[in-house]
UniProtKB/TrEMBL annotation:
Family that this chain belongs to: Belongs to the ATP-dependent AMP-binding enzyme family.
The enzyme's E.C. designation: 6.2.1.1
Recorded catalytic activity of this chain's protein: acetate + ATP + CoA = acetyl-CoA + AMP + diphosphate
Entry protein name: Acetyl-coenzyme A synthetase
Organism expressing this protein natively: Paraglomus occultum
Keywords: ATP-binding, Ligase, Nucleotide-binding
A GO term, aspect molecular function: acetate-CoA ligase activity
Length: 655
């Protein structure tokens, strides 16, 4: 593990010198972190019980902190408690401080921005919630949200939460087919969407995609359409309803539906190593608590700060930090509709300077892209408001980390490489700005209540001590962990709790260095991470095989300078599909999943490497593409070794 010897960065002085530059970090020394961490692990009930009272508003207090565990996946946090997520994210702040800005919207075109205060947000959420009620939607129903990055998307989240309706947000980059599958799996009754989206100067025909998806979604009764661009789009009465007309009819206050701590807050679909995407289900109190406490400590958020997370609300990062963490904690959050390079590669920095962003959160893929385009795009912008700069979604390489730290952070900001998953709900391994010295490329140390263990993947034995390498599991439940897979609890157990009995299994490889710091290596299963987006080889393969001409397909992740990994696929054609072109196959994946999943390269080959029992040996394909054909490893189970030279030739020809 060469990475362990990399440079240690102490906590930046600027953060510790609160006299000169307030505020003083919430946790300002390694010892303070250790003390709190120890308490969170040794006395989790006392630790979380107290925080749940401090950070959440309860309509009915809880008695028990935690019940159940990993054996049956019957985990319940604060089980007698009752609350409402939108009350926690809006009402209490609106009552205390109605004029405080809750949301800053920065539209695709520079100059198109606006703010929404907590007082306004309460009325906007109330109107929309009353509209939802008028469609007879109620607690436990599911609603699909397929929206561009506009504040109305957040209003939609919160209006659902206000009524105990489970939202299922689908990233607006997913294709009609992918949207259809998610709507069907969740039996959503309503789709909240927009006429069109705008991103990077381009138009996204959102409503048309929804119409296409709904051809096969019998549960959907209505489609509520927010006018983002005002263009003429297909509109089908009485199924379709205009957002602006609907909310006009409604009174701006809607009483919150008080729900149990363990009632579902939302579903979010994510890819695993096998089969269809899973509807990861998060519940109300534990999730909100995890979101709010990590927001406070990992980003060291203080009154008056402006939190700028560049993720899309369609992913978990958007859910937890743009929406729930920030608003539950009473913060000011930015909704950014554009891209890091529109209209120029300075866009992020213009936005930071304009809104005086204090915490900036993005993904390694964006950092690598901007680094390649050059530091001149960062210079000349006033980034002095920044205190904490974060990274999420995939391992960040030390070169990108150093660039982020020096060029963006000017060596004065805390860099937080935050490791977590859709399923963990909130950040689980990360530095804390005022307390943890950092090492570029390491997510450093566990967050409160998170007990990481490294297992030997084959024996399942715990690897104690430092300087070990294996798979990452967690030993204790934490409040924001997912509770189930929608309508498929067995799949939840099989994926997360059964692989290693007594532990939650992450699916990630990890090392613990001599200082006890964690280094996430990436997925050990068949999940490919492209620009921080999780894709499964199985999903890409089934999209390819859906093409008439395709006999078989194997997808692999190949390392890529900007996107971290890229998808490459090997495809065999049916006899009657022999004229199929690579172009068509790329389109096929765009149609089945979305443009972001399109393979960078497709190799048409006569056969795939398989074991005698017929399993595709993706490991062999990965080595061939990486140019490591001399290290193919054990090939004794390979059914037909003569395929190897053919594969090597094919790859060499096309690279
Ligand atoms: C939040 C999010 C989860 C997977 C996860 C891991 C990878 C995320 C990371 C990281 C190394 C980090 N991942 N953050 N790997 N360092 N800081 O991204 O959720 O979309 O569910 O992806 O992403 O492989 O298992 P999600």
């Amino acid at each position: 593990m060469s990475t362990e010897h990399s440079k240690i960065h102490p906590v930046p002085e600027r953060l510790l010198d609160a006299k000169k530059v307030p505020p003083k970090p919430h946790i300002d020394s390694f010892e303070a972190y250790q003390k709190m961490y120890r308490k969170s692990i040794m006395e989790p009930e006392a630790f979380w019980g107290q925080l749940a009272k401090e950070l959440l508003h309860w309509h009915k207090p809880f008695e028990t902190v935690l019940s159940g565990g990993f054996d049956y996946g019957d985990i319940a946090w604060f089980p007698e408690g009752e609350l409402n997520a939108s009350y926690n994210c809006v009402d209490r702040h609106a009552l205390a401080n109605p004029d405080k800005v809750a949301i800053i919207y920065e539209g695709d075109e520079p100059g198109n921005d606006r703010t929404i205060t907590y007082g306004e947000l309460l009325r906007d959420v109330g109107r929309l919630a009353n509209a939802l009620k008028s469609y007879r939607l109620r607690k436990g129903d599911t609603v699909a949200i397929y929206m561009p990055m506009v504040p109305e998307a957040i209003i939609a989240f919160l209006a659902c939460a206000r009524l105990g309706i489970i939202h299922s947000v689908v990233f607006a980059g997913f294709s009609a087919e992918a949207l259809r599958d998610r709507i069907r799996d969740a039996s959503s009754k309503l789709v909240i969407t927009a006429d069109e989206g705008r991103r990077g100067g381009k138009t996204i025909h959102i409503k048309k995609i929804v119409d296409e998806a709904l051809k096969e979604c019998p549960t959907v009764e209505h489609v509520l359409v927010y006018q983002r661009t005002g263009s003429d789009v297909p509109f089908k009465s009485p199924r379709d309803l205009w957002w602006h007309e609907e909310i006009e009819k409604q009174r701006p206050y809607c009483p919150p539906e008080i729900v149990n701590s363990e009632d579902a807050l939302f579903l979010l679909y994510t890819s695993g190593s096998t089969g269809k995407p899973k509807g990861i289900l998060h519940t109300t109190a534990g999730y909100l608590l995890g979101a709010a406490i990590t927001f406070k400590y990992v980003f060291d958020y203080h009154e008056g700060d402006v939190f700028g997370c560049m993720a899309d609300i369609g992913w978990i990062t958007g859910h937890t930090y743009i929406v729930y963490g920030s608003l539950c904690y009473g913060g000011t959050t930015v909704v950014f509709e554009s891209t890091p390079i529109y209209p120029t590669p300075s866009r992020y920095w213009e936005v930071v300077a304009k809104h005086k962003i204090t915490q900036f959160y993005t993904a390694p893929t964006a950092i690598r892209l901007l680094r390649r385009l050059g530091h001149q795009h960062v210079e000349g912008h006033d980034l002095s408001s920044l205190r904490v700069i974060g990274s999420v979604g995939e391992p960040i390489n030390p070169e990108a980390w150093e660039w982020y730290n020096e060029v963006v952070g000017k060596g004065k900001c805390a860099v937080v490489d935050t490791y977590w998953q859709t399923e963990t709900g909130s950040i689980v391994i990360s530095p804390l700005p005022g307390a943890i010295p950092t090492k570029p490329g390491s997510a450093t140390v566990p967050f409160f209540g998170v007990d990481p263990v490294i297992l030997d993947p084959t024996s399942g034995e715990e690897l104690h001590g430092n300087g070990v390498e294996g798979v990452l599991v967690f030993k204790q439940p934490w409040p924001s962990m997912a509770r189930t897979v929608y309508n498929n609890h067995n799949r939840y157990l099989d994926t997360y709790l059964k692989p290693y009995k007594g532990y939650y299994y992450t699916g990630d490889g990890v090392g613990r260095d001599e200082d006890g710091y964690y280094w996430i290596r990436g997925r050990v299963d068949d999940v490919i991470n492209v620009s921080g987006h999780r894709l499964s080889t199985a999903e890409i393969e089934s999209a390819l095989v859906a093409h008439d001409g395709v006999a078989e397909a194997a997808a692999i992740g190949v390392s890529h300078e900007i996107t971290g990994q890229a998808v490459h696929a090997f495809v065999t054609l049916k006899a009657r599909g022999e004229n199929t072109e690579v172009k068509e196959l790329v389109l096929q994946v765009q149609k089945g999943i979305g443009t972001f999943a399109a393979p960078k390269k497709i190799y048409l080959v006569p056969d795939l490497p398989k074991t005698r029992s017929g399993k595709i040996m993706r490991r062999v394909l990965r080595k061939v593409v990486a140019g490591e054909s001399d290290q193919l490893g054990d090939l004794s189970t390979l059914a037909d070794p003569s395929i190897i030279p053919t594969l090597i030739n094919k790859v060499n020809q096309e690279q």
